[in-house]
Write a structure and sequence with these properties.
Elements lengths: L2 E5 L3 H13 L2 E6 L10 E4 L5 H8 L4 E4 L6 H9 L3 E2 L3 H8 L1 H10 L7 E4 L2 H10 L4 E4 L10 E4 L6 H6 L2 E5 L3 E11 L5 E3 L3 E6 L2 E7 L6 H17 L4 E10 L4 E7 L9 H4 L4 H9 L13 E8 L16 E5 L9 E9 L2 H14 L5
Parallel strand pairs: 1-2, 1-4, 2-3, 4-5
Antiparallel strand pairs: 6-9, 7-8, 7-9, 10-11, 10-12, 10-14, 12-13, 13-16, 14-15, 16-18, 17-18
This protein binds adenosine-5'-diphosphate and magnesium ion (MG).
Length: 367
């Protein structure tokens, strides 16, 4: 395995470029547009929904992987039939691509989940509202991300439009004390490795801040999260990085929210925080190379996302802040768009968080 093909040219593909160079791998990207975040390694600009485009891109590539989960399953299956190594493969990806399928499979495997149901009519929504306190979460099963396709619902009429397009996932509104994410990497030989669980904070359904490790007085939570991550990676035969988004409830239980089978926003903090970043580990895993150490390099690492714009002109102001690293995704400014992130490291969590927030604030601009 030497040549990696990444379908999708977003920031995840971009952040694989450095580690690929370090490992001596050649990374090729099938990007959506000429100005995609990973344009520096874009060998093809084209539509990932077009089979010919994808098959042509895959020629001469040893293994295909993904920047996002929106590649249609028939394309992934066609790649496999053509003899291309696809990691993760079509079977695990089918679980990550559809939140209803994900709920069914995770329930069959016995993993702890929020109360859930599937609505086909507004009467189904009304019934679920009545039995779940009149306030629920509705989700479009496919194609959602960053809170798009997720809504708090108190009246069945709110999901009428979604129901016209197909079934809708309904979930109890979980009264979580916080959200965690468990990152795992698994390679075809079965070797599996976990990072310590991280704490994530979402703003309007979008990841905003991540703390490595998740602060806790209860080491049991960390062990349960790690075991859950390992088990799901094995159950689903995942190759590559898997992120398991979790809710921690007030009574100390962990419920699985959703899965992502690729590097994940909650893992950006591993770039500075860990011996092996999620991007390097993903490449090692899909190439079936031995996995790297997931040991933390600092007592704390905190990542804060930057939305909107990230101009080079503001970099100089960052020099006032110690031990802060900047990641610019090379994207055009747009209100609410994830354009980069900052990570601070340190020995005190409050101080590390303050420096990370201050760094992100430097880039804050109303656009
Ligand atoms: N059942 C739920 N109860 C409470 N909050 C939820 C529930 N499901 C999702 N959320 C909130 O919405 C966010 C986005 O939902 P998620 O299913 O992870 O969608 P996305 O694919 O957009 O990440 C979650 O991180 C969490 O903050
Ligand atoms: Mg999510």
């Amino acid at each position: 395995m030497r040549v990696i093909g990444v379908i999708g040219g977003g920031q995840l593909a971009r952040m694989m470029i450095g580690p690929a160079i370090e490992l001596g791998l050649e990374l090729r990207v099938l990007a959506e547009t000429n100005d995609s975040s990973a344009r520096d390694r874009a060998t093809t600009v084209g539509d990932f929904r077009d089979l010919d485009t994808v098959l042509t891109f895959a020629r001469g590539v040893d293994v295909i992987t993904f920047d996002h989960e929106h590649v249609p399953s028939d394309i992934i299956v066609a790649l496999e039939k053509a003899g291309v190594a696809v990691r993760p493969g079509s079977a695990p990806l089918a679980v990550a691509q559809d939140k209803i399928v994900m709920r069914h499979i995770l329930e069959d495997l016995g993993h702890p989940l929020p109360v859930w149901g599937v609505a086909e009519t507004t009467a189904d929504v009304k019934g679920f509202l009545d039995t779940n306190g009149g306030r629920i979460i509705a989700k479009v099963p496919r194609g959602g991300y960053d809170g798009k396709g997720v809504a708090v619902v108190t009246d069945a009429a709110q999901v009428a439009d979604w129901l016209h397009r197909g079934p809708v996932l309904m979930e109890e509104m979980v009264d979580f004390s916080r959200e965690l994410a468990q990152l795992v990497a698994r390679r075809p030989s079965g070797e599996t490795s976990v990072w310590p669980a991280v704490e994530t904070t979402q703003a309007n359904g979008v990841c905003a801040e991540v703390i490595l490790p998740a602060p806790t007085d209860d080491s049991r939570i960390v062990e349960v999260a790690a075991e859950l991550g390992r088990q799901i990676a094995k159950d689903l035969n995942v190759n590559g990085v898997l992120a398991v988004e979790l809710f921690e409830t007030n009574d100390g239980r962990l419920l699985v929210n959703e899965l992502a089978m690729r590097p994940h926003n909650s893992g950006h903090v591993t770039i500075e925080g860990s011996v092996t970043s999620q991007f390097e580990q993903h490449l090692r895993a899909i190439c079936d190379m031995p996995l790297g150490s997931t040991k933390s390099l600092h007592p704390w690492a905190v990542m804060v996302n930057v939305f909107g714009s990230m101009d080079l002109g503001r970099y100089s102001r960052l020099t006032q802040l110690s031990d802060v690293k900047l990641h610019n995704y090379g994207k055009e400014p747009r209100a609410g768009r994830k354009v980069g992130h900052v990570t601070a490291t340190g020995t005190d969590v409050t101080d590390t968080m303050a420096r990370a927030r201050a760094a992100a604030e430097i880039f804050h601009a109303d656009i």
